[in-house]
Amino acid sequence: MYTSKHEYFGATLPRRQCTGRAQTRRLPDFPRPSPADSSSIPTRPTIAKPMFNRRRWIPGPVSLKARFSLAVGMLIVLTATVLTVAAVLIVQRGIETVVGEREVSLISQVARGLDNKFMIRQQALVRLARDLERRRHPSSAFQDKLEEHHSMDGFFSNLSVLDAQGEHVADMDYPETRGQANFSTRDYFVDTIRSDGPIISRPLRSQLSGRPVVIMTAPIHDQEGRISHILIGTIDLAKDSFIKELSIGQVGKTGYFYILSRDGEFVSHPDERRILQHIGQGGKRAPSVDQAMAGFEGTLRSTAEDGADALVSYKRLASTGWLLCGVYPTAEAFAFANQIRWNAAIIAALLLLVIGPVAWLLIDRQLRPLKRLGQQMAAGRGAVGPAGPYADDEIGELRRAFDTLMAERDRAERAVADSERNLRLVADNVPALVGYVDKHERFVFGNERYSAYFGISAAQIPGKSVREVIGEAIYKVSKPYLDAALSGRAVRFERQVQRHGATQWDRVAYNPDIDAHGVVQGYFVLVDDITELKATQQVLALSEKRIRTIADNMPALIGYVDTDYRYAFCNRAYGTITGIAPETIVGRSVSEVFGPKVFAAVAAQMAAALAGRRISFERPAVELKGNRYLQTEYIPDIGLDGKVAGFYTMVMDITERKAAELALAAQQRLLHTVTDNLPALVNFMDRDGRFGFVNRHHESWFGVPLARIHGSLVSSLFSEAEAEVHQRAFDEAMTGHTVKFDFARMQGGDKRHYHATYIPQVDCSGHAVGVTGLVNDVTDAKLLEEQLSALARFDALTGLPNRTHLTERIGRAQTRSARNGSVMAVMYLDLDKFKSINDSFGHSGGDTVLIEFGRRLSACVRQSDTVGRLAGDEFVILLEGLQNVAECAVVARKIIKVMEKPFDIDGVARIVSTSIGVATAENGLAGVDTLLKHADDALYRAKDSGRNRYAITSVK
Ligand SMILES: Nc1nc2c(ncn2[C@@H]2O[C@H](COP(=O)(O)OP(=O)(O)OP(=O)(O)O)[C@@H](O)[C@H]2O)c(=O)[nH]1
After folding, report:
1. CA nearest ligand 1 atom 6, residue
2. Rounded distance, CA 508 to CA 513, Å?
3. Alpha carbon 653 to chain centroid distance?
4. Which entry of 377, 390, 497, 869 is 20 to 30 Å from 52 by CA?
5. Is the CB of 441 under 6 A from ligand 1?
6. Has the ipTM of the complex gone over 0.90?
7. pLDDT tens, 658-671?
């Protein structure tokens, strides 16, 4: 059985030493700007430079590509190695198994061969012994017998016979040695006697030849069955024999066999010198031998006697109990496996040589985008154009991420730059000095304002000492505050400085810059030029003084009350009017100064003032002597934040004015009493035309309550037409003239007539401040007047229009004729011989004729024509809208015709005729007098021509 205890795989690859300790890499500390080096203090946040080092990204000894290639190469080598080793091991294991099994088979075969040879020899020896036994020979006869059996030469190097006493009685090859030695003490002799059977001795040195031999014995019995002799067959271990053959036989080309006796002596060995030597002799021996000596049989991996690695096989010979050993050096046994291993290594190396460059090229190709990205990253920029197209892989993702990162960085940088620019812009445009000074009193930053203050530009400031920048004098003034700021205290102070040849004031603020460890690193400087403020404060102080002077000289109480109802200010009048010293008032509450009763009287108003409302009220001052009456004003003091900080109080003694007002009120009442009982509208209109005073008649007149009339524009209460008339009169009255005018309006369903008088009201300087209006109802007088007027315009006898009326109508007809170009005519009529009728029938008879004459004339003309009586028996007819002059003749003839009918005069029929003079005119060319004169002329022509006829004349 083959076993392998010494594994090929037993050797593990040496593992790389690993300390197991994390290598913490210490990042370099960024040095904190040395306060001593003011220029090192960053004035703006800095963007960290890309952390990519160009050297790491440009191909070099440690380039990523090289590392990838190396890694891939190593992976390939490792894979190839593992595969090769695994394959080789499998093959080797197979070879080992095969070789081992072959060795086991071989040694077993050899062992069987040896056993077989021993058995053949033993059987031959026993047969010879029996043969000798059957023919009884004396000891001397054995020599001859032996010589007859040279056929045994092939089996044994010598045959000899010992008698039962160990005497050497016969010897085939060395007969002369007979009787020279006794072998009774020899083990093989003793063993044969004892066992009474054939035995094979242990290897021993022949007493006769001195050669290493193995003795095979076979007892020869006498007739009684006792051992009479012992046949000895000697096998010379060093000479040609089957054992010697074994020693020179080889296992493979370099292997060999050897045999060990039970005692560990070499029975056979290629090196003859070792035969009969004990295995332990010489020191070294294969460890597996002991195992085999203890009983192991089989093949195992061990070492040969020379220490070389070998497959060693052991098999114990059944015939002798010897140990047959076969040594097969692994160098030869596994030469094939070694060849395979070498071949595999060569193939792996070749693979590496081929795949390495290929991998290099492939990786170079794959890493090219990464390289470009690396170059971009080294240059600190993202994609120049629109991102992509990037491969849809990790590098593409990385590039997109980098582009995004760069875009964000660019945005951030721009934002920082903008911020810095804005900050600088803000700082430079702040109307103040803005700066930063380190703890060594050196400027780190100063805005452009320093140029105007100290003649040093912002660019020159960093690094300069405070003393250098602001000058010795100002530095001396500022030094205590500067020290305070550097000790960690924020300080504010004002300093008077000489700048540009003038005295100026600065308000300075130093705010310490304390770091996270509580150490002052410097301080911020803010300096305002408050020269103007100072001047303003002085002006203000002067102004306050003036105001106080004015307030103190005002005949009124002037004070200021805060939100706690405490006096913050009061003028001197408080002392004179209330009798309380002003200095005792300030700081005390109203209640404390004037008592709770007075405070209760004004508390509501004060609360309203503190709520932001301006309050004005009057009250009797019970706290003052002499029934005084006070006019009080509370004016809230509203700050810029919209909150009320207090209120001003101004109290005036209005006792006299109040008395006057009461008197005035009495007069007002009297006025109302009078005017309300007058049958007229009485009012006062202010300069804006608003009713200031109205008596009660206005309410019924306008149909509006008095309360609404008060303050209303007068024009708003009239109709549009009425308002126009009113406004004209009002405007004229405001110029200082009294205006009188009549107007009519529907009042209570009737048309009423009014007569208005607007009287200007002037102030002491003569300027009109308003108008007093008096409006009387003159409806009755107007009707009477109209009646009188009507009476004056008609003839009382005939009821026809009289001369006045006729004249008016002719005048208006002339206007219309001129407008429409029509023809108009005036007929002048006179009864013929009327005087005789009066004479005949009396004056009343004449009147009858006159009335009838008028009636007949009216019947002869159109409604639009006018028939009138001038005087006596003279009548006039006005004709309008004529087409031509001929129409007048028609009318004249028609009149003459109607006169043919007799008049009934007191029952007497009497023919009365008339003569007619007609004057016509076109286009209104002739006036009333001209037309009447021409008509009158025509009338006389008709009279002269015999009467009862008409004459026509045209006025051109
Ligand atoms: N009955 C009456 N007679 C009047 C009135 N007014 C004037 N007369 C008279 O009328 C007369 C007018 O006369 P004249 O027109 O002058 O003369 P005549 O008699 O008509 O003659 P001729 O006109 O020439 O035709 C006078 O005698 C007057 O006294 C009046 O109101 N009534």
Report:
1. 872
2. 16
3. 66
4. 390
5. no
6. yes
7. 888 888 888 888 88
